[in-house]
Amino acid sequence: MDCLLILLLIFPRTESRRWSERQLSLQTGGTVTIPCHYDIKYIHHKKYWCYDAKAAFNYCEILAYGNTTQDRVTVTDYPAQSLFTVTMRDLQSGDTGMYWCAVEIGGKSKPDVKEDIYITVTSVPDLSVVEGSVSGQERGSVSVQCLYRAGYQNEQKQWCRSKPWSCYKVGRTSTSQNSAVQISDDGRRSFSVEMSGLQKSDAGWYWCKTGDLQVPLHLSVSDAPPATITNTGS
Q1: CB 56 within 8 A of CB 46
Q2: Which of 33, 188, 199, 219 lies at a C-alpha separation of 20 to 30 Å from 135?
Q3: pLDDT level of residue 107 (50, 70, 90 thresholds)
Q4: d(Cα 97, Cα 119) in Å, to the nearest integer?
Q5: What is the value of pTM for the model shown?
Q6: Residue 124 has what pLDDT?
Q7: What angle do CA 64, 69, 73 make, to 5 degrees?
């Protein structure tokens, strides 16, 4: 199926082709799922993922619309969470470039809403996670390991919640949900994140972050196991 081209008339591009507030370094042959959040007022609008093929003219090449799969790309909309996810499979070096999470608004006077994400695909990514998703139980804990290359050894390491956006730095921090986040950097090639005292409200999307790089990860939190009552007899 031929890809479509769309022109966004706003968001003038004063930055360079490579720059984006969100940059991902991904592994050749791998798979990534990226969360794209949107305002609740856009629940019934079309969502799409596109490649910024004509940056100088503010064009993008639509790769897939919401709840469809085209070639190696799947876009899934979750209206109840006001977000859609983009899954890209079998990543290749030719996939390197700027992409847009976008919501179709329609009309020349109502330009589409979008967020830039720059993706670099390489054999050895600069920042990665051991697992793209983790799960835990209420009142329990989970651990995440974020791997980085030597060039990022002296960069600040952070663990960021996707929505609402908030970041935690190396050390121990109590969250507003009464859980706690402990970040430890070994100073060599990885930093670890431990979340303890988990609550259902902790579930969602997070990012390992260092320097200008980020990598997404999804956290699921299930019900706590029922309490065990021990009958000691009389």
Answers
A1: no
A2: 188
A3: low
A4: 5
A5: 0.85
A6: 96
A7: 65
pLDDT-based confidence at residue 55 (cuts at 50, 70, 90): low
What one-letter code names the amino acid at 186?
D
Cα separation, 143 vs 147, in Å, equals 13
Q: Model confidence at 233, in pLDDT bands (50, 70, 90)?
A: low
**First CA to last CA distance, the chain:** 74
**111 three-class SS:** coil
**Cβ neighbour number for residue 22 with a 10 Å cutoff:** 18
224: left (phi over 0), alpha (psi -120 to 50) or beta: beta
CA distance 18 to 92: 18
Q: How many helices (H) and strands (E) does the chain have?
A: 0, 20
Nearest to 121 by CA among 88, 160, 93, 89: 93
Q: How far apart are CA 17 and CA 208, in angstroms?
A: 24
Collapsed DSSP state (helix, strand, coil) of residue 93: helix
**Is residue 137 within 8 Å of 221, Cβ to Cβ?**
yes
Question: Which pair of structure tokens corresponds to residue 135?
Answer: 């799960």
Contact 213, 25 (CB under 8 A): yes
One DSSP character per residue, 143-156 reads EEEEEE-GGGTTSP
* H or E element that contains 221: strand 213-222
Distance CA 168, CA 163 (A): 14
Query: Residue 212 has which token pair?
Result: 């200008």
Q: Name the residue type at position 146.
A: C
pLDDT attached to residue 56: 54
Q: Are 66 and 48 in contact (CB under 8 A)?
A: yes
Rounded-to-integer distance, Cα 97 and Cα 117, Å: 8
